[in-house]
Amino acid sequence: MNPQAAISHYQILTSLLAPALLMAATGSLLVSANNRLARVVDRLRQLIALWHNASSERRAYLDRQIARHRRRSRYVLHACIMLYVAVGSFVGTSLALAVDAFSGQRVPLLPTALAIIGVLCLLVACIYLGLEVTLSVRSFDEELDMELIPRSED
Questions:
Q1: Which of 1, 2, 9, 79 could anchor a disulfide with 128, C-beta 3.0 to 4.6 Å?
Q2: Which sequence spans correspond to the domains of the chain?
Q3: What is the pTM of this model?
């Protein structure tokens, strides 16, 4: 094997590392987002169970909480979708880099375009997760307010 071919192979392998690192980071975010979705769904189930035995005043509060948690679940779901698309884009980037290298740089824009799509999906997913966290804090604040206000029925 001549030295130039070996260098070329190392350059290809090195270029495949960036998408692999982005896949790992996206995977970590995806695990976190899926855990958040599970927690939101569990809390929704609790709120629905409480709603059945609640007074009309308490039901109004629970209705707001249920609506907010439904919105939270949609935000996390959209984030998960974006993260899955990002992982797919980064896998595609790696494959496109290899195809481009072996085809003599005939598709140079494809790996870059796929990487940009993946990064944009990561950005959108982070925005959705940020919105979900904001709603989570609002729900928690409202729960605290409701629990700390003395009830007339006690």
A1: 79
A2: 33-147
A3: 0.81
Listed residue (80, 74, 69) closest to 34, CA to CA: 80
- In angstroms, what CA-CA distances link 33 with 13, 30, 133? 30, 5, 11
Question: DSSP letter at 73?
Answer: H
Q: Which two tokens stand for residue 121?
A: 């999906």
pLDDT in tens, the chain (154 residues): 555 554 566 676 677 778 888 999 999 999 999 999 999 999 999 999 999 998 888 898 899 999 999 999 999 999 999 999 999 999 999 999 888 888 888 888 999 999 999 999 999 999 999 999 999 999 888 888 877 876 555 4
Asked if 69 and 43 touch (Cβ cutoff 8 Å), the reply is yes
DSSP 54: -
Distance from CA of residue 66 to its chain's centroid? 21
Please give the Cα distance from 69 to 71 (Å, whole number): 5
